[in-house]
Amino acid sequence: MAYLTQPDYVKYICSCGQLKPITNLYFCRHCLKIRCGFCICHEVDSHYCANCLENMPSSEARLKKNRCSSCFDCPSCFHTLSTRATIAQPRQDPAAGDAKIENKQPKKMYYLSCFNCRWTSRDVGIPDQPVASGGWPERTNPFAVRVNQLLEYYKAIAQQEKQEKLDRERKKFAIRGKYLTLTDKTGLTGAMARNIAGLPSSESSSSAIANFVPSQASAEVEELPEDYHTQEVNLKQITSMAQRLRAPDSQPRLAARLHPAARALSVKRSQRCRACDHNLTKPEYNPGSVKFKIELLAL
Ligand SMILES: [Zn+2]
Ligand SMILES: [Zn+2]
Ligand SMILES: [Zn+2]
Ligand SMILES: [Zn+2]
């Protein structure tokens, strides 16, 4: 039996000439050939969270920026964070008498904790939450406005290029005296058709391009603080490069600024034979009931 973690001492020649261990090989039943990851097509089938196994279609995943909304990774060691419950004692109010306190039940509160490195959401001052799932405060990207501007600008450029290509093609056909596009047949103008289809008009995209302010390089930078080179470094308070790059939007320098990172979604791929277009493996939509298709394994 071959395991995915097995060291690849024995390699087999794939039909494309690559040497691969048996765990990386597929067998196409239709061409009766061995195929490897190099000579098949990889297609994204669906997105899912590897922690809570929640499935979502690609459109929803894009909307959520390919992150799970209920699972978080430790910003310190990148292990998955667990939700822990505590009992919060009702705070004693000196103005109210003892009688009032008796009515208050101790409340269950939740915080995030890492079982690997003992980091907790309390370390960075995130308040405990009354519900176990979700509701964790999100840190907004300080450059969100600029990022959205850039996105809009590139979308407008793409739209404009598409339109130019369409116009060029139409001209080509108009010269030959043929009307091939729907808009020419029905007498609709391009702007009307876009309006009906709910696409942004070319005017709005051209205004987005006109109003765009490009970034300017500047030679002036802020001076470093005076004690920058003499100050003693406390490595416990400073984040590592990996920790900083894990949160590319904020890139926290201090450990006190770390924030739980929403878990990135994984994809399920289906593999297709490049020669005959048949599926080699297809993932199950529901990850809870994965039945590995044994007959499709080269083994
Ligand atoms: Zn191959
Ligand atoms: Zn999840
Ligand atoms: Zn951790
Ligand atoms: Zn094939």
Automatic annotation (TrEMBL):
<keyword id="KW-0007">Acetylation</keyword>
<dbReference type="InterPro" id="IPR008603">
    <property type="entry name" value="DCTN4"/>
</dbReference>
<dbReference type="GO" id="GO:0005813">
    <property type="term" value="C:centrosome"/>
</dbReference>
<keyword id="KW-0832">Ubl conjugation</keyword>
<comment type="similarity">
    <text>Belongs to the dynactin subunit 4 family.</text>
</comment>
<protein>
    <recommendedName>
        <fullName>Dynactin subunit 4</fullName>
    </recommendedName>
</protein>
<dbReference type="GO" id="GO:0005938">
    <property type="term" value="C:cell cortex"/>
</dbReference>
<dbReference type="Pfam" id="PF05502">
    <property type="entry name" value="Dynactin_p62"/>
</dbReference>
<keyword id="KW-0175">Coiled coil</keyword>
<dbReference type="GO" id="GO:0001725">
    <property type="term" value="C:stress fiber"/>
</dbReference>
<keyword id="KW-0597">Phosphoprotein</keyword>
<keyword id="KW-0963">Cytoplasm</keyword>
<dbReference type="GO" id="GO:0030016">
    <property type="term" value="C:myofibril"/>
</dbReference>
<keyword id="KW-0206">Cytoskeleton</keyword>
<keyword id="KW-1017">Isopeptide bond</keyword>
<comment type="subunit">
    <text>Subunit of dynactin, a multiprotein complex part of a tripartite complex with dynein and a adapter, such as BICDL1, BICD2 or HOOK3. The dynactin complex is built around ACTR1A/ACTB filament and consists of an actin-related filament composed of a shoulder domain, a pointed end and a barbed end. Its length is defined by its flexible shoulder domain. The soulder is composed of 2 DCTN1 subunits, 4 DCTN2 and 2 DCTN3. The 4 DCNT2 (via N-terminus) bind the ACTR1A filament and act as molecular rulers to determine the length. The pointed end is important for binding dynein-dynactin cargo adapters.</text>
</comment>
<dbReference type="GO" id="GO:0005869">
    <property type="term" value="C:dynactin complex"/>
</dbReference>
